[in-house]
Amino acid sequence: MNHIYKFFLLFNLIVLQANTQESIQAKIIDSISQNPIPFATISTTKNAGVISNSNGNFLIYINKKEHKKDSLFIRCLGYETKRYLIKNFADSLVTLSPKSIELNEVLVSNKNYTAEEVIIKTKEHLQDNYDYSFTKSRLFFRASYFANVLKNEVKIKKTTIPEFNQQFIDSLLVAMPKDSDDYTEILADIYGKSGNRDEQKLDIIKASHLYDKSKEVSFKSYEEKFNTIIKKRVKRDSYFKIKSGWFGTKQEIDSSLFENGNQKKVEESEAIIAQKKKQEAKRKKNFLKYRKSSISQLQHNSFIFKDSYLNFLEKPNKYDYKIEDYSFLNNNFVYIISFTPKRKEDFKGTIYINTDDFAIVRLDYENVKTLKKFNLLGLSFNQNLKKGTLIYSKNNTNKYALKYADVEESTRFGFKRPIAIIEKNKHTKGRRKQNELSSDVHFIITNRHKNELVIFDNESISEIDYKNFAEKPKVKPVYLAKYDPEFWKGYNVIEPNQAIKEFKSIEKK
């Protein structure tokens, strides 16, 4: 009887929990162009809610009991705010109309400031406008990573070891994955000062890691093949001379490869391997520390910090500014000011500045040239893309705090050089040279990654509250082999894009 009672109690709790929330899902588009509207704020109160993704989609969960008679507000820069009674909302497509600007509003609000004068006043008001104090914020963070091998060629020119032939090398290249994508998502509370790496603590509520394990390169079988060949063809006291063009390095043979090798050296080799495995395990355990660093870096990229790469406020003489237009955001009148570098600076962008308090409420930026470039003796590196968006809104202390941030970067790495591996042995009578493998190697790999951060609400806390909070450093993400719409059910997050929704691992047979 007691078991039946517990069963019905548990069942009622589940039903009660399911009935306390309802979800609202829709897509937001421009009423004129019909284009999707990203970064719109969807909320039931002034400072809480979600943000539409790059395709204009959103999903928000609402407490039925608390918000039964509440309204849903949809706001975006330059558009009329829309308000719906939650109980009546049934649209799958929301259209926002651009907000018209009366000429007298411009004349009254702009006070005839030039773009340069607005920038100067914006810098003067930084400390007053933005929140640099201790806060507790609920956030959602998504890191997306994409890699693509454009070229992987190894041409064997000479080999004295029959097993190291073109067929064997080609089999390695075929086994290597040509492309991969990887997504990490975190829902958490963060304590401390926004963007201050040394004064932040992270409390991860839930985390997932979506990737395809079948595209991980497994070297175990190849390691066994290499070891077998080396034991058969290479002498114990040999060393490898590796040459690439004008350069060469010397690498001793690990005697643990040989069954009758020196026991002391075997133990030393095993100790080194054990230490490397320990370091790798430690890195995996530091998931919280690594992701906290990523979140803090994304916050710290902002113009409100003096050492940010977005230096258009700190070094205004290096940019040209122009008032392009005026607009509205949450019924606030804003300047729309473009900035472009005069000479060697890296970024251009568009700034949206409140005319009342000279606070930047939004910034869109992108690089105007290659940020990093290296090309020497067959090695090349090119960072050709870095762009992002920052959105700020007022919190409960009437200060501006970060609401949304994203940054997308792309790099390209190339390697095109001849490689020669020569085995030498000083204990062998006659010629020291034993074996040789020479080849031409050509690799080109592109990497692209995007970090997104949305902060749902901010709450001021004391320094004591911050110090008293203890992190749980051993938290790990849940591995997902494919997108699972149930994983984040009941939590307000950034709605995933189509690529994430369609992601599915290819299972190995």
Beta strand count: 21
- Between the first and last Cα atoms, what is the distance in angstroms? 48 Å
Average of pLDDT: 82
User: What about the largest sheet?
Assistant: 14 strands, mixed
C-alpha-based Rg, rounded: 29 Å
Write the layout of secondary structure elements.
Layout: H1 2-19, E1 21-30, E2 41-43, E3 50-51, E4 57-63, E5 71-75, E6 82-85, E7 93-96, H2 103-109, H3 115-124, H4 126-129, E8 134-159, H5 166-175, E9 179-193, E10 200-211, H6 220-233, E11 239-244, E12 247-252, H7 263-285, H8 287-300, E13 319-329, E14 332-341, E15 347-354, E16 360-367, E17 372-376, E18 379-394, E19 400-424, E20 433-460, H9 463-468, E21 478-480, H10 498-501
Parallel strand pairs: 1-7, 10-21
Antiparallel strand pairs: 1-4, 2-3, 2-5, 5-6, 8-9, 8-20, 9-10, 11-12, 11-19, 13-14, 14-15, 15-16, 16-18, 17-18, 18-19, 19-20
How is this structure best described in words?
There is one protein chain. With 509 residues, the protein is an alpha+beta fold. It is built from ten helices and 21 strands. It has helices at residues 2-19, 103-109, 115-124, 126-129, 166-175, 220-233, 263-285, 287-300, 463-468, 498-501; strands spanning 21-30, 41-43, 50-51, 57-63, 71-75, 82-85, 93-96, 134-159, 179-193, 200-211, 239-244, 247-252, 319-329, 332-341, 347-354, 360-367, 372-376, 379-394, 400-424, 433-460, 478-480. Strands 8, 9, 10, 11, 12, 13, 14, 15, 16, 17, 18, 19, 20 and 21 form a 14-stranded mixed β-sheet that branches. A four-stranded antiparallel β-sheet has the order 3-2-5-6, with no helix packed on it. Strands 4-1-7 form a three-stranded mixed β-sheet. Strand 14 and strand 15 (347-354) form a beta hairpin. It is elongated, with a radius of gyration of 29 Å. It starts with a helix and ends in an 8-residue tail after the last helix. 23% of the residues are buried.
